[in-house]
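Sample intake sheet
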Amino acid sequence: MATLEYAGKGLVGVLTPQANTTAEPEFNIMWPQGVAMVVARLTSPSPSMMDRMAEYSDGLRATLDQFSNAPLDAVAFACTGSSYLIGREREAEWCAAIEAERQYPLITAARAVTDWLSALGAKQIGLVSPYPPDLTEESVAYWQSAGYDVAEVAAIYKDEGDFHPIYSLNADSGGAGLDALATKNVDAIVMLGTGMPTLGSIWERANWDGPPITSCTLSLAWRTSLAVAGQSPSAENALAWSRGEPWGEKMKLLASA
């Protein structure tokens, strides 16, 4: 494996939807020192969000070809909605096929979340959903198929004519969803979607009395970082990431800027 000036501890390929303005900034906050990323955009001309997410998975191999022969240690698939639509069985086959073909792991945001929940032994979960109702239903079905009881859903979807109803949300929106679930009988809370800003909301609640919190982007960064480092998921490292221990100093710098 080549030694890279800015990726001495690992190079990650990130796949993110074409108009997502959140995933890359949040990944840059969370990557451990010495880990870097290159990004390829998942693209589709369809005006329908649901159709676009289906086409992202159909075009996966062509998107991966954008990385050419870059010495990738892992690829992070930052579109949870595509996983909901293809289902867990096909998703697992998909990841196994790509790893066999390309010689690096393909880690999806949805599978990273299930790894985080499994590490904590969570069974009953709450969701903060920025999605429209139809995609929220697909999401709930996905988590149920993974064996989780979706006990609560805090819906924060707002279609107000912005360029995108999810990417244009701010941290306060996600924070309101978290606060709505703070006293509910759940083992953990998942903030859905890689397009909703989540790190500020999670960081502000690092020491709260509510359930442990993750987001799709946080789980994906956590699981990919472990894969690159050759480490396994554990309750200890899952909770450390949720408390912001590996990335909180960068959040402090941003807050003081």
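Comment: Residues 88-102 form the longest helix (15 residues). The chain has a mean pLDDT of 92.
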